[in-house]
Structure formats: structure tokens, C-alpha cells
Fold these 4 entries.
Entry 1:
Amino acid sequence: MQQTLVLIKPDGLKKSLTGNILTRLSETKLEIAAAKMVRVSKELAESHYGHMKDKPFFGELIGYIMGELHDRRKVLALVYYGENAIKKVRELSGATNPEEADPVSIRGAYGRVTTKGVYENVLHTSTNEEEAEREIKLWFKPDEIIFDVYETEIITREVVKERVWKKK
Ligand code: IDP
Ligand code: MG
């Protein structure tokens, strides 16, 4: 059994593709183990794409995943769980460059390359187990995932600062 991170990127949300993408992903017969809307901070974006730091398009990539290009400062983050989850989701997603992706793959059907050269490929999917673990731990807390996918521990925090609803 494996788990993999899927992000429906801001272009996917802006183009109203969420339903279509989830329908395509349901072909895998995998289980959705977690799902949430996330406002992507610069810190989260840079951490997620940390391994791309030296790429010439890094700045655009961070702006893209933060929603700056689409006026949608959010992504839908999901964890898919099941047998061979990483490969199944990856195959259905298609190649990184949407122009090279199989036209029946999700990226091939819905992605595009902008005139500035940004690959707007509508979703992110983890490549391997190591990457999936790093990414799932970055985007989700243990209790947001319905299966115990990785080892956890209980810690006690001294100072807890939290945003709550303001009392009337
Ligand atoms: P992946 O998303 O298929 O795993 P990665 O190589 O991990 O591809 O790249 C992360 C993201 O960076 C891609 O999904 C795409 O949005 C962007 N990207 C990758 N390579 C290029 C490129 O050569 N030009 C522009 N954007 C790229
Ligand atoms: Mg990748």
C-alpha cells in the first residue's frame, strides 16, 4: 500500500476542473485519505518546490503555485491511498510538459504552456515514496489523514498560539 500527494493547482481551480480531475482520478480506484483547501504561503511553496531552487523558472513556479498568476490564492490538496498509488496517479496525470503529455492524460487534456514558458499543468502528483512522504508531511497533519500513513508521536507544546473566531 502507498500514499501519494495530489494538488489541484490554481489553474485547475480557476478553469473549474476540480470535478473533472477527481473523476479522472477515480479511475484508479484508490481511496481519498485526506482533502483540504490550502492558502499557499511563500514558505510552503518554496518548501514544496525546494528541489527546483536552481531552475531558471523557480520564481514563476512559486508565483504559480501560490496562485498569483490566476488570482486564486489556493490549491486543493489530497492524499490518495491504495495499491501502487504513486504510479497509478502519476500515469493518469501525464508528463510534466503538458504539450508532451499523452492527450488523454489529465495534463495532456487540460494543461498548457504559457507564452512566458510556465508549464500550467493543472495538478501536482508525487513521483516516488520518498517524495510522497516529504510532501504529505509538509501539507498535512497526522489527524487530517484518515489512515495512519506514517509513524507519529505525541508532543506537548509550551506556548500555543492559534487564530480563533473573535468573541462578540
Ligand atoms: P512534475 O510536476 O511532473 O513532478 P517537476 O520536474 O517536479 O515535474 O517540476 C515541478 C513543476 O515545475 C512542474 O509541474 C511544472 O509546473 C514546473 N516545471 C517543470 N519543468 C519546467 C520547465 O522546464 N519549464 C517550466 N516549468 C516547469
Ligand atoms: Mg515533481
Entry 2:
Amino acid sequence: MDQRPIGFLDSGLGGISVLGEALRQLPEENYVYFGDTANAPYGDKDPETVCQLTHQAVDKLMALDCKAIVIACNTATSCAGGQLRQELHLPIIGLEPALKPASLLPGDGKILVLATSVTLALPKFQALMALYGKDALPVPCPGLMECVEQGHLDDDHVRGLLKTILSPWLDQPIKAVVLGCTHYPFLRKAIAPFFPADVPLIDGNAGAIRQLKRRLTEENLLNSAGSGSITFLSSSEDESTLRRMQKMLALCQ
Ligand code: DGL
């Protein structure tokens, strides 16, 4: 049994949607969550910069003696996940747009993959497209993570932006929508009405945490008798950021 915490990182609040899933599947683990709010967003920076920021965030978590790292950000995973796995000898779990499960769904129609411009442009996603992208339409969503950061989860502001982003794609049958950024599960209520009720909105959170559980089990790192403590950290000095993190976690429970 290993009581050390599991480290989570994201550019801001989005990875809390992944942390919420971790608390469901692994309620007895201890967690440290780092939001790089001072450097957000990652999704429109150049990949080299995102790679450096991700390394810095991982260094902070390693200094806190984390036993595993969840890169709870599709953008950071695309930019730095491969490199970090080579450099570090502990389980590193990344996020990628859940295109594979979406492509396995029965039925016709396109799969909209909503994600940051960086995620969609990098080789990791291109490889996923080559395998599972026959029906996929990649849709970059500039400005959408900022809505989550600013608390616009289901109001006119975010609905207006979603209308601009989604309208060009709505004149064809859609069989699924992939939420390929960890901020977007917080916008489910705002996104769902743009599609028929039977169109699933799929995120990669449950799959990533199943993978975390498998890796912890394999490496004998599980903590089956812990208290499930959570420590929030942010690169922003602003006290209100930590309060917002608590609030976002409450939305996941
Ligand atoms: N939450 C991050 C992701 O999953 C991106 C947000 C950002 O642009 O920083 O891609």
C-alpha cells in the first residue's frame, strides 16, 4: 500500500473534471491538483512552450512526492506526454480525445471532435485520425476553455460562442461529439441542446482513470485505506482561484 498522492495537472480548471472521475473510481487515494492558471490557456500557445510549462508543472508535483502523474489536459499530453514517459520512472497517464470509442459506436453520421487547435494539429491526434478518423471532423474551439475559467458554463455568453463554433457543422447527420479538452465536460449542459437528444457527448475521463487504476495495480502502488484527501495548487497567486477549484469539484460530485 502506498499513501503518496497522485498528482494531477492542467492549464487551469479543466482537469478537475478528470479528478472528479478519479474520486469515483479511486476514492481512497490522496490527490494533489495543480492548475497552471497563470499560464493558461495552453491551447493556443506553441507546442514547445506548452511542453516546457508541462515539465515545470510535473516538477512541482514530483517535488511533492507524487507516486503517479495524470496529465489531465489533452493539449499538454499531446505536447509533452511521450517525452515525460521516457524521462520519468513512474506511471504517467495522459488524456487524448476519445475518438476511438466514438468510432466504434454503431450508426452513420459524422463525429465532431471538439478540442484545442494545438491538440488537433499535433502528430498524436493525427495518428488517432489515421486509425479511427474515417467519420471524424476536427473542430478547434478557441475561447471555449476561457468560458469555463470565467464561470460561463451555461449562459448566453457561452451559448453564443458555441453557436459560432458549431453552426458550420450542423447541416449533416452527427452520430457523436467528442469532448477533446478536459474543460469541455463542464459545458455538457450548454453543448447538448445543439444536437438531437440521442447524440452522445463522449469524454476520455473514465478511460484515463481506468488506465490509472490498471497502472497503480500493476506497480503495486494502490492505496486502499486512505482518506481521499485533495490538495489544490495554482500558479496564480489569486486566492479566489483555489475557491473556484473547490467549486468546480463540487460540480463533479
Ligand atoms: N484542458 C486543456 C485540454 O484538455 C486545454 C485548455 C487550454 O487551452 O489550456 O486540452
Entry 3:
Amino acid sequence: MTETTFTGKKAALEELRARMRDQLSKLMPEFEIDQKAELAYEINQLKSTQNAVILGHNYMEPALYTTVPDYTGDSLELARRSTQTDADIILFCGVKFMAETAKILNPEKTVLIPSLKAGCSLAEAITAEEVRELKVQFPGVPVVTYVNTYADVKAESDYCCTSGNADKVVRHLMAEGHERIIFLPDEYLGRNTADEVGLPFVLPSPSGKPHETEPDVSGPALIGWQGRCEVHDKFSVEDVRAIRRQFPDVAVVAHPECSPEVVAETDYTGSTKQMIAYVKDVDAPHYLLLTECTMGDNIAAENPEKEMLRLCSVRCPHMNEITLEDTLEGLRKVQYQIELPQDVIKRARLPIDRMLEIV
Ligand code: 13P
Ligand code: SF4
């Protein structure tokens, strides 16, 4: 390294450190910020030499979230962003189903995820075989799958949706004359969406596991599945009421993967991107976010004047797998690549494209 390059690197690193200290010093000690700044600097250098773009989900930890992604957002926004890049490599700082969606939309590109351990309890909740069985049980009924599913499940579906557009996708199908719609696999997002669009929600028995009393699925209905997000399932009505007793003027903002009973107690429900916009745009003395707790840190870093309350026992163990260390290693070694069979990519693309056309 020449002396000028060395001085250039030192200055750039100093600038990054100073910016991170400014944004993050209420969230972590300075020595940790300085260590993370070095990692972030290396990642940003490698990004340009390898012509890579980094997409970062809103649940990424603050030191990563504020430094290396070219774009941050919710599942919908990042899926769209993945189609708008001419980079050769897309590195997805999020969980596996998100990276798979980027691969389905960009089959010719190299799509990387920093850790193969970054799963999702919702994506694990249903298999392609179970979707095929439902299609036999309800012939001709369109299948909407939440984007939090693996590619082979999407390949069996008619439409995808995210937490940011589930109601629009279901309304689109209703406007086309469908009275019964299969909605998989998140039971709570299904129930919350059914409430929004005015359809009854029913849970049929998965084949071979009959309910004691079989629900009536002959009339208009959103036909759901018993998948749950292991994070949002932990919030309770009692949590919200306890916070409201202590802070009567709090604005409670929830993700629609929370139960309908919790959602009924809140001031606003929306995707992670919509929650962030709500806190930014609406003035309240305090905010309580019912979602993955790191997002509260990211919002606090971006809105230092706003008072965020914490229910911070609830960290998504899968999102937690994505670190600056693994991101750097992933870019250096061009590991771990998302590989999907060509026929799955082709069939899974259709429901995603249909969703992107609606909204
Ligand atoms: P968003 O699409 O709202 O970002 O949600 C993704 C997710 O996994 C929420 O738990
Ligand atoms: Fe999946 Fe829940 Fe984690 Fe989101 S928060 S990635 S839905 S387990």
C-alpha cells in the first residue's frame, strides 16, 4: 500500500468511525463501534471491487444496518430493489427466504447470504407437499403464499404477498370474483387480513390430522394454515395493557404477524417499512414497537429525538445470525450462494411477478 493510499484509507475509516459514533453511541460502547467500523470499511471496499450490492432488512443490527447496505427496507421493498441493480453479486443481509426471492427474480446473478443458519419459523411451517394436498382438498381455489416461505412452496402458489400488501393481493382476487382464497402459512397474518377485507377466516384440518369439529369451508372464506412467527407470537395483550397503564400516551405500533387480539390493542399495524414511516411521521410522546426488538434500535438511531420504549426480550434468532463478520467473510469467499432448481425458479417467479404487478 502506498503512503497516499494508506492516508486515504485512514481518513475514510476515521470518517466512518465518527459517523458511527454519532449515530450509535447511545446503543453500544465506543470500542465496539470502532471494531465494527473496521469491518464495515472492509466490506464497503470489497463491494466495489467485486461489483456487489448489499440489501439489508430492517431487522439487521444497528452497526450493520447503518453502514454496509446500499438499500434497506422490508421484504417487499428489497424484492423490488433486487430487480433494479446491475451489480453482479447481490448479498442479502436478511434471512434465507428473502435471499431466495432475490435469486428467483435474478436467476443469472450470484446471490449470497452471510449465514446458512438464517431460517424463519414461518418458512418452516409448511411444505410444498402440504400445499399440493390443500389444492386437492380445495380444487380451483387460488393460493396466496406469504413471501416468508421457501421457493418450492412459492412454486405451488398463484400469488405471493408480504406484510405490506396482503390485503391488496386478497382484495385483487376478490375483485376477480374469488370468494374463497387459500392464504398460507401465517395464521395471524391470515386472521388480520381476513378482518381487514371482511372475509371469515377458517383453519381446515391438514390432511390426516382431523379437527374435532370440521369448520365450514363451503362459503366465502380465507382458508388459512397454522404457521406462527416465533417472535411475534410472544407479544401478549397483557404486555400492551401494562405499558399503557404506565405510559397512557404511548403509540403502540405492531407488525401484522402479531395475534389479532394484540393488533386490536394497537394504534397502527403495518410492515416493518410502514412501522418505521409511522414513527417518523406521527408525533407521539412515546412509541412501543411490537416486532423484532433490534428494529427499535435502528429507529432510535435515526430519530434521536423520539422516545422508544423497549420490550427487548424478543430478538429473532434467525436475523441474529447475520453479522458484519459473516458478511465480510461471505464477500471475501463469495460464499454462501443461493442455488435453486431451474424449474422451481421458473414456477416461483410467476406468483412473485403477479404480486409486484398489483402494488
Ligand atoms: P417485513 O416484510 O414487514 O419486513 O417482514 C418480514 C418479517 O420477517 C417480519 O418478521
Ligand atoms: Fe421469520 Fe419471525 Fe424471524 Fe421474521 S421475525 S424472520 S417471521 S422468525
Entry 4:
Amino acid sequence: MAGAAMTAEAPDTVPVQLVEQPRLQKLKEIFMSKFGSAPKFYVRAPGRVNLIGEHIDYCGYSVLPMAIEQDILIAVEPAKSQVVQLANTNSSYLDFSTSVNNIEINKTKPQWHNYFLCGLKGIQEHFGLNNPTGMNCLLDGTIPPSSGLSSSSALVCCAGLVTLRANGKNLSKVELAEICTKSERYIGTEGGGMDQAISFLAEEGTLLSKLKGLDWKNMLRLHDVQTKLGVSLEEMLTIVEEVLHPEPYSTEEICKCLGISLEELRSQILTQNTQDVSTFKLYQRAKHVYSEAARVLEFKKICKEAPANAVQLLGELMNQSHISCREMYECSCPELDRLVDICLQFGAIGSRLTGAGWGGCTVSMVPTDKLNTFLKNVKKAYYQTNVQRLALENNSLFATKPGRGALVFIEA
Ligand code: GLA
């Protein structure tokens, strides 16, 4: 992106740059051969890794994600017909078209186009668009799918921004992130907003990105409990130990504690996915959330104060985060644990699962001078021992640094 010129935009809206990258030119050529005319603009939204702060965004706490350079890029031409035509440079993702007036999202089939439709529908509904424009869109994605790097949220965000621009509307990045978080729920994903916020709000070279100003009011969050009690995170950890017991809670016990019926628990508190869960590890989950939230604050403090042993301290926090995810939140899996061990063995100062977990990926902090040997050794120890992993190796193992958030590109 070197040398790209910026056009003037309000600082809180998505920046617009002139088309200068060879990748955009290539996409334009494919677009023209597909649709017979040139795209009018391009939109990109990046994937992310989360440095620390796992499964606490939806509890109301700050997290520390960063955007990566891998992204979703879409070339767009608004069309007179009220039809959206979607194509993908990867031929394994089939073409799709639908009327803009009748957006139906099939939750049972998480095909790629349904994520686009989430972003589209979110913007349409936000503005109550009666006469939305049709569009021809060609997508090019470089985020490895199903890898825990948030390719689906990047696609929803990209589609939201595409629809916004095609319909001549404007929103701040925070509003866009908010809408895209809500609209991803059309496909059944109940995320906490981290992925969409970082996709829009990331700043290149910044380590630190904080979720703020998003509307979480329909959630009963552990953060609300802390605020209400007016105590520190450390005090909350003591309270958890005093008030909750480590043995799993049955639904009956929870109903008794809350003074509600099973029906009320099911309809007012449990989500669709947890309706049939019969035991709940409240103690462990709360311990994870409050300790992880404290680790995020500590991480931020170390970055700010930069003591001589900062890197060691940050690494230690990442390692503690992984242990808490594994033991308390139980969102790791044997493969992630193995990968973390291998990364630590070959020179990572800190290593942890990142993103939702239960698969996905790990993030490691590695000194630059050890990077090449680190990558070589991890490849050998993890990927080259298994045929399935070997097939993934090429785009699954990479070095990255904080990238920038979503952008719109236009021709000069
Ligand atoms: C998913 C969600 C995020 C966040 C992470 C876990 O990526 O979309 O909002 O909750 O899991 O930290």
C-alpha cells in the first residue's frame, strides 16, 4: 500500500484511497471479463488475531485484537437492476445472485454468500432502504477460511461497507462495526463485536485497539456485576471464590439461586445453543473472565510503561491466558495445546490460542532475529508430521504485525 494517496474524509469514517495496487488492477480485469464493465470502487476489510482478551468482549471487557494484512477485497459496480450478483475469484465459491428486495439468509447453510447478505441486510435495515441499489460484486479473499482469523466477520464488514457506499450513505466506523456485529447474527453467530470493531477501527502499527462505545445493553454481562459492586477485578476474583463453587451447577440449582422457573431460565437467560445444556461451570467461567480482563489491563500497562523486561512480561501474560482458556474456559483443544507447546519450545516468548478457540489458530510473540528459525522449526514439528496439516501449511503459518482497518479504493 506504499505511496497510496489519501483523499479527505472525516477521521471517524472509513478512509478512501486511490487505486494503485497491482492486486486491484488484476481484480479489475477479472471483473471486466465476468461482468463486461469496470468496477466503480473497491472495498477491503482485514481479518484479525487477538493478542489477549479471549471470550471477554461479550462480557463487557476490553480486548486487544490487531488487524492482519490478509483481507477480503471486493470490486463493486452499482447496477440499475435491483439484483445483487456475487462472484468470487476462488472458483470453489459458486456465483450467487438475488433480488435486493428479498434477502433471505439460510442459517442452516453457512455458504459464503450468506455472510455477504448479512452485511447487506444490516445496512438496508439500518437505513430502511426502500429502493436499494443492485450491484455486481467480485470478491477476492486472502484470509485462510475456518482458521480462526475471522474471515467471516471480515466478509460481513466488507459487504456492509460495500452496501453503504453503493447506496450513497455514510456512517462512522463505530456505527458500521455495531451494525455488522448485529447483522452477523442473521446467520446465527453470536459474537461479542471484537472482530467487526477491529476490522473497521484498526490502525497500522498500533498494538493496542480497544472496543468502546458499542451497544451491549441487551446482554447481562459479568462486567455489569463488577460495575454494580464497584470493586476491582482482583476483588471480583475473590468474590467468585467466596460466592460460587467449583462443582458444576445444575439447571435446577441455577433456577433456585435466581428464584426463577426452568421455563424462565430457558426463555430469558439461555441462548438457543445452550437450551439443552444440563450443567454449568459458573465458577470456572467467571474466574476466566475476570482474570483475563485483568490480564488485558496489565498487558496495556506494560505496553505503555515499557519496562526493560516488557517482552518477557507480555509473553507471560499470553501464556497465562492460554492456560486459563484451556483450564477454565475450556475453549482449547489438543491440537491448539500442541501448537502452543511447539511454539514455546522453538523460541516464542508467549503463545496462546486466539479467537473463539475449539480449533482455529494460535498467536505467538517471537523476537525478530529468531523468526526464520522459529517458522522453519514449527513447520517441521507441527505441519510436516501430518499430511492434512501439510496441505494447510502454505498460508497457515505466517509472520504479521498490526495492519490497518477497512478501506475504500476509487479510481483517480
Ligand atoms: C469470536 C467472536 C468474538 C470474540 C472471540 C473470543 O471470534 O466473534 O467476538 O468473542 O470469539 O474472544
